TrEMBL record:
Species for this entry: Phyllobacterium pellucidum
Superkingdom of this protein's organism: Bacteria
TPR repeat start-end pairs: 149-182
SMART domains attached to this UniProt entry: TPR
Name of the protein in question: Tetratricopeptide repeat protein
InterPro entries: TPR-4 (IPR011717), TPR-like_helical_dom_sf (IPR011990), TPR_rpt (IPR019734), UCP035836 (IPR014596)
Amino acid sequence: MVIAGIIQRNRRMLFSVAIAGLVAGISGCTTTDKTTTGSISPAVAATATSASGDFDQMNEQQLMQASTSLGSRYQANPKDKVTAMKFAAVLRMTNRSDQALAVMRSLAIAYPQDRDVLAAYGKALASAGEFEAALDALRRAQTPEYPDWKLLSAQGAILDQLGKESEARDLYRQALQINPNEASILSNLGMSYVLSGDLASAENYMRQAVKAPGSDSRVRQNLALVVGLQGRFDEAETIANQELSPQQAQANVKYLRTVLAQQNSWTMLKDKDKAKPKS
């Protein structure tokens, strides 16, 4: 199947596109969060959630100002856990993953048993592409008798990056047992099926994620991606238009078409889409 081959050759690119909210995210200042296969950015621990949540709605200028302020505070006291974790979060969001990792590596040395620190360290490792080390940190942050669904989902996303979809989906399903109908987990599960080329299953889970409590714009953009990957470009643009500007929605579809242009696949899908009977 042509589309499955394209997805396999572009799995890392598609992963990045999806979790960045398509072009709307890529064209901004934020970087991708590789501890989620979907678009919601669930931090992998309570403190980490608070740290990253402070910056989610900031524009590029505001993020740079926060980075400068937090950097000064961090230099004054590198062992201040809250400041260091917030500084690392804003560094990741401004595409400085290596610096964020350095901050979290130092903090992990200072707090080797702290679950919040280990979880955030794992997130920083994943953002820097050090997936095996990230998995180790997240597993050490986990408490087997009281498993954290956020950590399970984050581990699953990293396993997806490593091409271990079956193991990833086992973890997503464990996470759903703890927190049923959680949008971020369903989105991760949907994108896991995208990465293996099963677009029908991907769309099923993504539509569940869109309807679930906590769903956000980025999850809906992932649904647009899944629909577009099946050649239904008009429908994909309609979904994207619900929350993006027309220019952003068109840019997303244009980017997706560029991906599918390899080996004439865009032409094949376009012809297939035109051949479908109108309902």
